[in-house]
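Dear Dr. H.,

I hope your travels went smoothly. While you were away I took the liberty of generating a structure for the chain from your last submission, since the lab meeting agenda had it listed for discussion. I wanted you to have the full record in hand beforehand rather than looking at slides cold. The sequence, exactly as received, is reproduced here:
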Amino acid sequence: MPDLNLLMTLDALLSEGSVARAARRLRLSPSAMSRALARLREVTGDPLLVRAGRGLVPTPRAIELRGQVGPLVEGAKAVLRPAEALDLTQLSRRFTLRSSEGFAETFGPRLLSLLAEQAPGVIIQFLTKPDKESAPLREGEVDLETGVIDDATAPELRTVPLFRDRWIAVVRTGHALASKSVPGVSYKDCGHVVVLRRGLHSSEIDEAARAAGQERRIATVVSGFSTALALARDTDLVATIPERHTEGLRHGLHSFDLPFETAPFTISMLWHPRMDADPAHRWLRGCVRSICATRQADHAQLG
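The corresponding predicted structure, in token form, is as follows:
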């Protein structure tokens, strides 16, 4: 394998035309530079620099190499130097953010406003998250993801908590549970729309309801929060969904606490470690954390 350090030495020798000056440029001793020149002669099979009076002159092979080595060395320096400071006003990039339903509706407007203000050339693509499969992050199809960390989460992923959420019940505004117009009607008396998909632990809700004597009578099963809320909006079914994650989906509906205790859960942001040092990706992570923190503060004040 060629010693790529020799490229730096060769560039200095051909540029300076002197062993002593090349040594000073690379902060080497003249003897070390002489040994390096000997090594270069061995590798290239050419004397490269030959004595002419008191100085050295390049051979035809050295003249040919001089036009090639300089750009190679500059290219290597560019690759190895730290990334330039991120200029958000000039940043042109598309990021893909995968999340459970409701994130785009609830947090999207504030995130888009922040991006438009700081980096107008950035485009965000929101994708619905149907499962906890980590391959899209690992393979670069997705830049960021939000969700609950559990045993199914790939261990190599980077994670940071965004906000706490909890389960609540939702019905249409004219529902008996909303208006209390029908005495004696309770959560367990109603039909329920259940959200069931891979990685969503609906069984925990059923277990808690059963333990409290509030076992749900399931009328239908769907695969997403928006579908559950759409059915609750136009029927007498009750939807049990995450509170903060569906803020943007629940307008015009009546929300209330469950008649039994369920454990709160944390929504986190996930990304692949290869994106850790990417300045634009790091900036986007900061934006997502900022808008979630701001929304959480607003939510706390309203509560």
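Two observations you may find useful: The domain at 88-164+266-302 is CATH 3.40.190.10 (D-Maltodextrin-Binding Protein; domain 2). DSSP finds ten helices and twelve strands in the chain.

With kind regards,
E. W.
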